[in-house]
Design goal:
The chain is of the alpha/beta class. It contains 7 helices and 6 strands. It has a 4-stranded parallel sheet with strand order 1-6-5-2, with helices on both faces. Strand 3 and strand 4 form a beta hairpin. The longest helix has 15 residues. The chain is globular.
Amino acid sequence: MNKEDLTKYLEDILDRNEETCILITGEWGVGKTHFWEKEFSKKSLKDKKYVYVSLFGVENINDIKEQILAQVFKLNKFLDKTSEATENLTSRFNFSNFGLNIGVSSVLSILKRENFKDIIICFDDFDRKSIKLDTKEIFGYASHLKERFECTIVFLMDTDQISE
């Protein structure tokens, strides 16, 4: 499929405003990430909220949750974009300015569907994730985001490199 056809196809799916999962596959180096980040998202996602997460080297599901949560906080303007809390996330959110030290799961549990609704979450580099990160955990979490929060999920990967 050429870029124009893929762009039209993705725009049609995303214009439906229905939570769904999309898989964009291709060999390493063909330009999946470049297409998504530099071409498609800049032109076609202007009016939509989206989050981009690279799984390259990620070793546990909490790291993924933190990346997503930090970007959702920025999208919803819960914290100033220059806030130290969003710039220096570790395994626990440390909002010391507010006297809070809260785990990622706790923060996710208090967020509402509206905070995530209609957000497109792109998981890239699936085929380059750490062997410590279980594939079922990623798919399970993506399913959770789609079903509970009504997000659209996009995976970019080289399926030929996936052995699980």
